[in-house]
Amino acid sequence: MQMAPHEIAQMTQVPDVLAAQCPSRQVLQHMTSRWGTLVLLVLASGTHRFSALRRRIGGVSERMLAQTLQALEGDGLVKRVAHDVVPPHVDYSLTPLGQDAAARVAALTGWIEAALPQILAHRAGGDQAADLDADQALSVT
Questions:
Q1: How far apart are CA 60 and CA 82, in angstroms?
Q2: Contact, 23 vs 14, CB < 8 A?
Q3: How confident is the model at residue 141 (pLDDT cuts 50, 70, 90)?
Q4: pTM to 2 decimal places
């Protein structure tokens, strides 16, 4: 994959995800999209075929999974190995860079799962959530 001249010029600058034109924004989008995050989490457990990924990630369409895998492969996070057999057999796994990314995404999703009761309380109503936060703050101090 060849980079456009403006992308090459940006590579000489310090990456800044808050800058609108920084290529890191696209990588962030690929990794933190709903399907990108879930693909990274599943592949962290090992190599999977397309159909196994689709079964494991509930609700993803074939098209969205294919697009997500292509984006993550383009970023160097996913390795695609096509075997020359009939019917076609393609394996997907994480590259070393992808393993590092998956560990970081797993930390975020782990936090989300641990904090889910508090998040749901906030969604249910402000007063109860504020009381829950205050009680937890008192129990920590």
A1: 22
A2: no
A3: very low
A4: 0.78
